[in-house]
Design a protein that fits this description.
The mean pLDDT is 89. This protein is globular. It has 2 helices and 4 strands. 22% of the residues lie in helices and 22% in strands. Strands 2-1-3-4 form a 4-stranded antiparallel sheet.
Length: 120
C-alpha cells in the first residue's frame, strides 16, 4: 500500500502557511542541524552568504544581503555569529543562509535559518 502524497496547505491568504524553499517543508532546524548545514557548505568550498527580509516580502525574489558574502570562510562559528548578528539587527525578519558554488556559478544550497513571527 502506498502512502498518499501530502498537500501542504500553503496559501497567500495565510502568511504563516507560506513555504520558503525546500527545507521549509521540514520541521525547523535546531542549532546543531544548522551547524551541520554550515559545515557542509564550507566543506564543499562554497561561499556562505546571509540574506534577510520582512515576512510579507519573503515570497518575492529580492532579499536584502547581510554584508558581503563570506568569501573563503571556513570557520562555522564565524558564520553562526554573523547569522546571530543579522538576527539581532533585524529581529522581525526572516533570515536565510546561502551556499554559493563558485565552480557552477550558482547557489549550491539555500535555507531559512530563522523564521520571524508573523503578525497579521
Amino acid at each position: 500500500m502506498t502512502t498518499p502524497m501530502k498537500d501542504y496547505q500553503s496559501r497567500i491568504s495565510d502568511p504563516n502557511s507560506r513555504k520558503l524553499g525546500t527545507f521549509s517543508y521540514l520541521p525547523p532546524m535546531d542549532a546543531e542541524q544548522v551547524r551541520k548545514q554550515i559545515n557542509y557548505i564550507v566543506g564543499r568550498g562554497w561561499t556562505p552568504a546571509i540574506e534577510h527580509t520582512e515576512p510579507p516580502h519573503a515570497s518575492g525574489h529580492y532579499w536584502y544581503m547581510w554584508k558581503l558574502p563570506m568569501f573563503g570562510e571556513t570557520d562555522v562559528d564565524r558564520v553562526i555569529a554573523e547569522i546571530e548578528e543579522c538576527r539581532a539587527a533585524n529581529p522581525a525578519h526572516h533570515i536565510r543562509l546561502i551556499g554559493y558554488d563558485n565552480i557552477a556559478q550558482t547557489q549550491g544550497t539555500s535555507m531559512v535559518v530563522h523564521r520571524a513571527p508573523i503578525t497579521v
